[in-house]
Design brief:
The protein has 22 helices and 26 strands. With 732 residues, it is an alpha/beta fold.
Length: 732
């Protein structure tokens, strides 16, 4: 079977399930408050019959949300007739779900006469009792007219039977000036003939309960009991009470002598109660009627149950595809990770890069891309960067800005996924390679254009998506443990080559199932920017931010939860309680988490010990690093932690939480310390360095030596090699 076809089938059904679940969630969330519609209907009925001693009304049963029978056939007849109102004997909906009740309201809106409803088994199912109560009113009630008293009981078991019997006795025992007709959702006596399907059972179906109620009805002088619960018509006289079973307003009828589409026309006056059956002859022959009955049944299911049908069908299809892939596809347990032989085009390459974030937004990914662009251009290659609009005019013709649909804070932007002008510009640029920096949104746009141009793709895995689960409402755990890894795996396996910054990130890529060739290429840094600040500039800055000459600790990070800055701030409070030399922490960066961090600093009485310096320009960061003694870091969302390499280039030892990518640069006891996310251990490491200036100097020199291996030029050269490998894998 074609794998692409199976994938399309799977994702189409997944989209259907997601859409239906979302739609049902909306229905539940948007359900209106209690309306008590029956109250208005009763008032209309009482007004119609207030001055007359006779009344006429239609009775239906088993409508089951049928648009084919109830809505299109019975309602027009009732509207055109002389009856005063319509009564449902039960099961007017096919289920108690929100969609069924909404469909019923639409159907009833076509009725020009008032109506009364019996609470039946279908109204009760799917947690429908609350919806019935909200939309219409109580589950049992009575309507006392000039010529007849109508009693409605709840046979579903939702309301205790003994309570209803006591109520019924109170209502009828002492006053019976006119006939009494009782409506109940399930029959109290068997129909006069056998039915294809057994009638529904209810709260009074057990023999002792049924006999008790029948005795009570006889004692109270009830004249007629009308019920639903089966797709048939039956009229029996037992112990002086007339029992009518009507079920011809929808559902699956056989269209024979006992099971046929119909409704009842009741007239109550001084001469008594007359009941006329009104059959619906909608087909000319017996065979046509059978086919019609089946069709109306299916049509009704699709009218109100199509979403449930699709939900179940698509769910089974997803399960089927999953089982097919698990049982009948042999996984490649020994994949080849060999990198194809590079292809040299004999000329500089044209490279298009797609990223969801870029300058002027300050972050690791934008800075990494800017350095790569600059390094590639120094080698003679031509680069185009496709990125979201910054809201300002773009002067660089190599930067193609995509209009932004939604901007959430400073970090998340939702760019237009189908920008015609930008797509046209990329097609005209005719790149040799497309480099994708994110596995979604503009990354998806780049992948589509690469398929259209038939050029290879390279994907750089920059960020641990699972660490951003806090930003996903309702599904944070699912996103962290499943969806984030699935997004990366699916996207990466559609690309030709993968670039990661550290060996541990390569191991992660392999662990989640990425089988494409992987290049480990740490992002390079501009070595010439470090240790170049003038002594006068350093002295001026030191006097401003550290006038009392404390030991300066520094960190550079966006102020957002995944950077774990609260951990560092709490560690500073703990460090103050230890016998450590005086210190001050500088935090360089800006972000949406600033108010929370400011409050935390105040709460811990650290206003004089921790300084949030805000956003600092990239060119100014090396000057701040040159003032510090130790670089501290606690983020667990990094694939590399580029700022750690920059701090090392400035000659600073590092104390960090040991997460993905950190161990590639921080060698314990040599370039600093990497501890678990244990505040005591981490704080003790900082204290140890503060108390040992000679260790600070020694580790700083080693760190600087390690950092000098990672220049921007070397990084760009390695990425260019990955591009050539991608060209080789695509057969160019």
């Amino acid at each position: 079977m074609n794998r692409r076809l199976v994938s399309v089938f799977f994702y189409v059904n997944f989209a259907i399930v997601a859409a239906i679940v979302g739609y049902k969630t909306y229905l539940y969330a948007a359900a209106p408050d209690a309306d008590a519609l029956l109250l208005d209907q009763i008032e209309r009925i009482e007004e119609r019959s207030a001055t007359t001693d006779h009344v006429s009304f239609a009775v239906i049963g088993e409508a089951n949300n049928s648009i084919g029978v109830f809505e299109r056939e019975i309602i027009p007849h009732v509207n055109a007739s002389e009856v005063d109102f319509l009564v449902s004997a039960g099961n007017i909906v096919s289920g108690g779900g929100e969609d069924k009740y909404r469909a019923l309201l639409g159907t009833l809106s076509r009725l020009t006469k008032p109506y009364l409803l019996t609470f039946g088994e279908k109204e009760y199912s799917e947690f429908g009792s609350g919806r019935f109560y909200q939309r219409f009113g109580p589950h049992f009630y009575d309507v006392d007219l000039q010529s007849v008293r109508l009693i409605f009981l709840d046979s579903t078991g939702r309301t205790p039977t003994d309570w209803q019997e006591r109520w019924l006795r109170d209502v009828l025992e002492n006053d019976r000036p006119h006939p009494v007709i009782l409506f109940i959702g399930t029959p109290l006596v068997d129909p006069a003939h056998e039915t294809a399907f057994a009638p529904q059972q209810g709260a009074w179906s057990a023999a002792p309960d049924r006999n008790r109620l029948l005795t009570l009805l006889g004692d109270l002088g009830v004249d007629v009991v009308i019920s639903a619960g089966a797709a048939t018509f039956s009229d029996r006289q037992i112990d002086g009470i007339r029992h009518i079973l009507t079920g011809g307003a929808g559902g699956f009828v056989l269209n024979d002598d006992s099971s046929f589409y119909h409704y009842l026309d009741l007239h109550v006056g001084p001469q008594g109660i007359t009941v006329d059956v009104q059959p619906l002859d909608t087909a000319p022959t017996a065979l046509a009627r059978r086919i019609e009955g089946f069709w109306f049944f299916i049509y009704s299911l699709f009218y109100v149950g199509i979403w449930n049908f699709l939900l179940i069908f698509s769910g089974f299809m997803i399960l089927g595809v999953y089982l097919f892939n698990r049982l009948f596809r042999t996984p490649d347990y020994y994949p080849s990770y060999e990198t194809p032989s590079p292809v040299d085009l004999g000329r500089p390459m044209r490279i298009a890069m797609f990223t969801n974030t870029y300058l002027p937004f300050i972050g690791g990914v934008p800075i990494s891309i800017e350095r790569l662009k600059r390094g590639l251009e120094q080698q003679g290659h031509t680069v185009r960067i496709i990125c979201p609009s910054s809201g300002k005019p773009e002067d660089d013709p190599a930067i193609l800005r995509v209009p932004v649909l939604l901007r959430l804070g400073g970090m998340f932007t939702m760019a237009h996924p189908f920008p015609r002008a930008v797509s046209r510009a990329v097609l005209d640029f005719d790149p040799d390679v497309i480099h994708l920096h994110h596995p979604y949104w503009l990354g998806g746009l780049g992948l589509r254009l690469a398929r259209r141009l038939k050029v290879p793709t390279v994907f750089s895995y920059h960020t641990r998506l699972d660490q951003f689960a806090y930003a996903v409402p309702f599904l944070s755990i699912l996103f962290q443990n499943v969806l984030s890894h699935w997004i990366v795996r699916r996207f990466a396996n559609r690309c030709d080559q993968i670039i990661v910054p550290t060996p541990v990130t390569r191991d992660y890529i392999r662990l989640i199932g990425v089988s494409r060739p992987v290049h480990v290429l740490p992002t390079g840094i501009d070595l010439e920017h470090y240790n170049t600040a003038s002594k006068v500039k350093l002295a001026t800055l030191r006097e401003r931010i550290n006038p009392d000459g404390r030991n300066l600790l520094i960190t550079v990070a966006r102020l957002s939860p995944e950077k774990n800055l609260a951990f560092i701030i709490r560690a500073m409070a703990q460090l103050k309680t230890l016998d450590a030399p005086p210190f001050r922490l500088l935090i360089l960066g800006e972000g949406d988490d600033r108010p929370r961090l400011e409050q935390l600093i105040t709460d811990l009485d650290l206003d004089d010990d921790v300084t949030l310096l805000g956003g600092v320009s990239y060119d100014a960061v090396p000057t701040y690093l040159a003032l510090a003694r130790i670089f501290v870091y606690a983020s667990s969302s990094e694939t590399q932690g580029m700022v750690i390499l920059e701090a090392m280039a400035a000659g600073l030892p590092v104390v960090a939480v040991n997460s993905s990518g950190i161990d590639a640069f921080v060698a314990p006891g040599q370039t600093g310390f990497a501890t678990t996310e244990n505040m005591t251990l981490w704080t003790e490491a900082v204290q140890q360095l503060l108390q040992d200036p000679s260790a600070q100097v020694a580790m700083g020199k080693t760190a600087q030596s390690v950092a000098r291996r990672h220049s921007t030029q070397a990084f760009a050269q390695g990425v260019a090699t990955a591009y050539r490998a991608a060209l080789g894998s695509s057969g160019n």
